[in-house]
Amino acid sequence: MSLPQPDLPEPAHPAVDSMLSRKFGREVANYFSGSPLNRVSFLRPDHAFLSQALKHPDASFLLFNKLEPLLKSPTEIAYAKFADIQPIIGDDPYAKSEEDVIKEYNSATYVPQLIFLGIDERKEGFAYKDRYKGQPYFAVDVSPKGLVTEAAEALIKSCQAKGLEFSKGRMHMSLPAQEAAIYAEARHLLDWNARNPYCAACGYQTLSINAGFKRTCPPKDVAPSVQNSERPPCATRTGVSNLCFPRTDPTVIMAVVSADGQRMLLGRQKRWPKYWYSTLAGFLEPAESVEEAVRREVWEESGIYLGRVVIHSTQPWPYPANLMIGAIGQAIPGGEEINLGHDAELEDAKWFTADEVREALQVGTSGLGEDAGPGYKEGGLRVPPKTAIANQLMEAVVAGFASGAPMI
Amino acid sequence: MSLPQPDLPEPAHPAVDSMLSRKFGREVANYFSGSPLNRVSFLRPDHAFLSQALKHPDASFLLFNKLEPLLKSPTEIAYAKFADIQPIIGDDPYAKSEEDVIKEYNSATYVPQLIFLGIDERKEGFAYKDRYKGQPYFAVDVSPKGLVTEAAEALIKSCQAKGLEFSKGRMHMSLPAQEAAIYAEARHLLDWNARNPYCAACGYQTLSINAGFKRTCPPKDVAPSVQNSERPPCATRTGVSNLCFPRTDPTVIMAVVSADGQRMLLGRQKRWPKYWYSTLAGFLEPAESVEEAVRREVWEESGIYLGRVVIHSTQPWPYPANLMIGAIGQAIPGGEEINLGHDAELEDAKWFTADEVREALQVGTSGLGEDAGPGYKEGGLRVPPKTAIANQLMEAVVAGFASGAPMI
Q1: How many CA atoms, within 13 angstroms, populate the side-chain half-sphere of residue B367?
Q2: What sequence ranges are listed for the domain Nudix hydrolase (chains A, B) (predicted)?
Q3: Helix/strand/coil for A190
């Protein structure tokens, strides 16, 4: 049995037609979610597991050069095999226990970042302790650096000779949903590791452990250039510190409806194409509930006062480390006057009718850099594509999210 | 007009009785949310605003000594006035622009952490540009340290002489809800600043700016002991880096119901009192949606396979920096067998009937360190108190969250 996926073809599971789903409709699985991998996170400290998974002939490796993924085409990831990356990561980076790896920490050595992403339980082959079965997936940073420069450059060249490419640009929104989710996990973790080489508590360099899901501040550093191999005490070594674990920044994104439910508020930034609007969004702040963050952001950016806020769905967003929490909020009567003068983030904000939004969802969607579709008429509203949670929130409101009847 | 509060007395706002609220019931405002303060976050870089708010006679200061808040009693915060803390923070820490403060950065100087929390718009008095009006709230770290040691010790003594106390222990769950929300904001930010004195990108010391909501890695350090006042380049200085902003860790917490909706899964940790169970919970991982994280955590900890997941409400949790995202998930038929052998976090997990949970919510709630209430009979289920989102999730399921009819 594998972890259920909301995007499995119908009929997914009988329970999906149960009380919750009848009331809420099918779960919206936003782009970058819906990974087919079971992360078996509890096996990450187990170097014997990692070592076997790594060297299994089925193991698949997603390669990144400076955070750019190796692709066959804009719609297909190019996976490598263990033999391809062995010159870069060595015969077995998981040969030793974590304890020993920490003891032997040497800040002068460059260790290419390796991430264990999970196992795809739909594919047989690899098995651990006869319980955890599936195709293992890893991500590897093959950027030419330190002692691996030569090997990495050779690998990159051989990939290019096969017609593969490390895809430039930040967004990879043309991958199929499940591939996009695997890529998102890899990118988020490679970025977090690359972005945090030093300990924020003590300023010393840290070391990646737990298959790429943890960084630790080793008590010793045996690098020859270091005068005293014993490091001073560090707060992250006593108890559990969040500094050692990957960071994910919660953001709120919200479809705002008028008090009478007839209109939807959308805003636009200056750098966006003409006629393009989207839902408002912003970072959740310390000690805010999501509902409070939604009310604050909407007021700060548009001057609108919201009453009730309902959470709709969520979307991982690996640029670099966000969790987008999608909500629908309703203005209070008398609180609908737009004021862009508080926080000057938006160039414009406007109330749109249901018909305007409905038409835009049909003919005016596209990526930010793309042209609107063939049905679009100049001057009409343009909105984000289906891969954006903003689009899903607009769709939900127009379709009458959770109400049985249209909201607007 | 001030930002709406979900816990205002009835009738709150007419919109609260509109379509969304009729379908969803009133919004659940969990403990530590529901702050009465408008953070006016966009004014934080404005040192003229901060300076006026700081020195206004209405300004109220929440004092912390090593993260312990100054209280009058377990149910009341003791606020100080500007004159009380002037010996510690100086005449006006906001006299200079942020630009100048960064230019003059000196890593050898200890600057007590000061946080601008927001303005309470219900109280008249202070006004900025005739638009932002209300009583200003700040938090200050008065721990005896560096050059302020003497002044801080004197302040602490004078507080104690008045019968006030820096409250030991981590949890302050007996404060009224709105005070708890103010305390939570202060604690989260003081902790984040204290926990992150160094830059994770380059290892150099950082400086608090934006009224305590940002840390920056200054390009120069004029401390006399520093050989070269120009620092090397740092990645956080080009573009916007999340490392400069407070961290909030999203966690998921979920009431799990059986496929037929008749039972609820609860688990217990070894260190909890006998008969005490709660909902399962865990950290969201990189590039997971909340719905995926809920399914993963429930499977890892209990072996149960979930289908549909619905988000219920959220709770800020300032120990040290969590956002608890509360959800309700439903097991798929055939996926209800408990297996504690994957991730060994729980001592036990068990299916309970609606009646068992209902009774526990009536007679078996209490804080972890407290005795169960008078109606509790030894051997009955014990569960967390109303201040915990776990309790609210159980209540929601028993009351038939969003279904019109009981879920279990």
Answers
A1: 7
A2: 246-374
A3: helix
Q: Is A196 on the interface with B (CB under 8 A)?
A: yes
C-alpha angle A264-A293-B251 in degrees, rounded to nearest 5: 120
**Single-letter amino acid, residue B228:** N
Question: A121 — contact with chain B (CB < 8 Å)?
Answer: no
Q: Is the ipTM above a cut-off of 0.85?
A: yes
Residue B222 CB partners (closer than 8 Å, separation 6+):
B104, B105, B106, B229
CA neighbours closer than 13 Å in the CB half-sphere of residue A29: 22
**How do the domains of chain A map onto residue ranges?**
31-194, 249-398
Distances in Å between the alpha carbon of B404 and those of A23, A26, B22, B356? 9, 18, 10, 21
- Dist. CA B329–CA A16, nearest whole Å: 11
Nearest beta carbon to residue A308 from set B15, B35, B306: B15
Architecture of the domain spanning B249-398: Alpha-Beta Complex (3.90)
Nearest by CB to residue A33, choosing from B14, B289, B321, is B289
In the block, which residue shows the tokens 């963050």?
A293
Task: Choose the weakest-confidence range: A275-279, B11-15, B307-311.
Answer: B11-15
When pLDDT is averaged across residues B196-207 and rounded to a whole number, the result is 98
- Most distant CA atoms of chain B, gap in Å: 71
What is the distance of C-alpha A397 from the center of its chain?
25
Distance (Å) from the C-alpha of residue A163 to the closest C-alpha of chain B? Answer: 29
| Rounded CA separation A254/A264 (Å) | 10
Of B327, B8, B371, which is closest to residue B177 (Cα–Cα)?
B8
| Mean pLDDT computed over every residue of chain A | 91
Contacts 24+ apart (CB under 8 A), A295-298: A295/A329, A295/B3, A295/B4, A296/B3, A296/B38, A296/B39, A296/B41, A297/A252, A297/A254, A298/A254, A298/A256, A298/A265, A298/A329
- CA dihedral angle for residue A120, residue A125, residue A130, residue A136, rounded to 10 degrees: -40
A39 in contact with chain B, both atoms CB, cutoff 8 A: yes
The owner of tokens 């040497």 is A106
Residue B403 has pLDDT above 60, yes or no: no
Distance CA B281, CA B267 (A): 10
Average pLDDT in the B115-139 region? 95
Chain A contact probe: residue of B1, B16, B289, B291 with most A CBs at under 10 A: B289
Cα separation values, A112 from A44, A70, A89, A151, A237, Å: 17, 16, 6, 12, 24
Per the DSSP assignment, residues forming a β-bridge with A136 are A119
Residues 19-38 of B with CB under 8 A from A: 19-21, 23-24, 27, 29-30, 32-35, 38
Of B303, B323, B370, give the one whose Cα is nearest residue A40.
B303
Place of tokens 């079971």: A38
Return the closest-CA partner of residue B245 out of B344, B132, B321, B339. B321
- Check CB contact under 8 Å for A287 and B181: yes
Q: What is the DSSP string of B159-204?
A: HHHTT-EE--SS--TTS-HHHHHHHHHHHHHHHHHHH--B-TTT--
Cα–Cα distances in Å, from B260 out to A15, A339, B265?
A: 8, 49, 13
Distance CA B272, CA B254 (A): 18
- Flag whether residue A242 sits within 8 Å of chain B, measured between CB atoms: yes
In percent, how much of chain B has pLDDT > 70?
91
| β partners of residue A198 | A205
Q: Is the dihedral of CA A316, A319, A321, A322 positive or negative?
A: negative
Task: Please report the sign of the dihedral spanned by the C-alpha atoms of residue B173, residue B176, residue B181, residue B184.
Answer: negative
Euclidean distance between CA atoms B159 and B99, whole angstroms? 35
Q: Which are the contacts of A192, defined by CB distance < 8 A and separation ≥ 6? A: A246, A247, A320, A321, B286
The answer to whether the beta carbons of residues B52 and B76 sit under 8 Å apart is: no
B363: which residues sit within 8 A by CB, 6+ positions away? Answer: B372, B373, B375, B376, B377, B380
Percent of chain B having pLDDT more than 90?
82
